[in-house]
């Protein structure tokens, strides 16, 4: 597990400050149909390797981030604010 | 319905505590939260003259958000005047009863806080005037450096006594 996350607003922070929501997937259109929505809400790939996830900086700036990390090597590639962008590397 | 009087009492019933060169105090005053959209610009010193006599400090609390901290307790009309001045880009919420202010000062301040804070508090990385929200142990805190050897912590009222007790424990080795 990534232990230090480069928050674009706060700098390197320990993972204890964050709440992890899960995979950052593109949201289907409202009328995309039941199958697409079931896949989006319930089905996950659990990849071994590169992974993009929503992380909330709960005990810091309270912004939602997308953290790109590797589930195999524990490398963190970067993090960006969901709404504002601004990728930062560790 | 039974009558019960509202009591006003501090979140931490403690006098200042000295541990060797370390001093822990609860300075009181007022704490206002400024809420804007991410990317909002901070209020300039010029927009805070309403509270100028109360030596306001502006603390970063994430994109578009700040705390204004004053040593003197502000009156309702003073807070309303500030809110009117900063509207509509920033909303002002009086957090004086919701959060508690703790001041730590003395030469070992940084070494003491390092026991509970995962930030690099070296003055080159966290200079005077810097503020950020982080964890002290497991308690969410807004931490500000107010001097080379002095820091202030803003904590939710319900956690104030726990944080105060933790800081005393962390200070024990110094005196
Ligand atoms: Zn952050």
Automatic annotation (TrEMBL), chain A:
<dbReference type="InterPro" id="IPR006279">
    <property type="entry name" value="SoxD"/>
</dbReference>
<dbReference type="GO" id="GO:0008115">
    <property type="term" value="F:sarcosine oxidase activity"/>
</dbReference>
<dbReference type="InterPro" id="IPR038561">
    <property type="entry name" value="SoxD_sf"/>
</dbReference>
<dbReference type="Pfam" id="PF04267">
    <property type="entry name" value="SoxD"/>
</dbReference>
<protein>
    <submittedName>
        <fullName>Sarcosine oxidase subunit delta</fullName>
    </submittedName>
</protein>
<dbReference type="GO" id="GO:0046653">
    <property type="term" value="P:tetrahydrofolate metabolic process"/>
</dbReference>
From TrEMBL, chain B:
<dbReference type="Pfam" id="PF04268">
    <property type="entry name" value="SoxG"/>
</dbReference>
<dbReference type="InterPro" id="IPR027266">
    <property type="entry name" value="TrmE/GcvT-like"/>
</dbReference>
<protein>
    <submittedName>
        <fullName>Sarcosine oxidase subunit gamma</fullName>
    </submittedName>
</protein>
<dbReference type="InterPro" id="IPR007375">
    <property type="entry name" value="SoxG"/>
</dbReference>
């Amino acid at each position: 597990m990534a232990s230090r996350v480069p928050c674009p607003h706060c700098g390197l922070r320990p993972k204890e400050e964050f709440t992890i929501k899960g995979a950052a997937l593109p949201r289907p259109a409202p009328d995309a149909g039941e199958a697409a929505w079931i896949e989006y809400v319930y089905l996950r790939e659990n990849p071994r390797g590169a992974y993009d996830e929503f992380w909330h900086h709960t005990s810091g700036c309270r912004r939602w981030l997308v953290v790109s990390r590797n589930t195999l090597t524990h490398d963190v590639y970067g993090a960006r604010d969901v709404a504002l962008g601004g990728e930062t590397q560790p | 319905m039974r009558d019960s009087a509202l009591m006003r009492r501090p979140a931490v019933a403690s006098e200042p505590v000295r541990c060797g060169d370390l001093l822990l105090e609860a300075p009181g005053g007022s704490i206002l939260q400024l809420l804007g959209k991410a990317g909002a610009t901070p209020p300039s010193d010029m927009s805070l003259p309403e509270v100028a006599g109360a030596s306001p400090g502006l603390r970063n609390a994430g994109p578009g958000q700040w705390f204004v901290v004053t040593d003197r307790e502000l009156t309702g009309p003073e807070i309303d005047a500030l809110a009117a001045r900063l509207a509509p880009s920033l909303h002002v919420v009086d957090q004086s009863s919701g959060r508690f202010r703790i001041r730590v000062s003395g030469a070992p301040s940084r070494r003491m806080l390092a026991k509970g804070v995962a930030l690099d508090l070296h003055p080159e990385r966290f200079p005077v005037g810097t503020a950020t929200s982080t964890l002290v142990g497991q308690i969410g805190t807004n931490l500000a450096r107010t001097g080379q050897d002095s820091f202030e912590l803003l904590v939710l009222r319900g956690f104030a006594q726990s944080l105060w007790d933790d800081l005393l424990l962390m200070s024990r080795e110094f005196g």
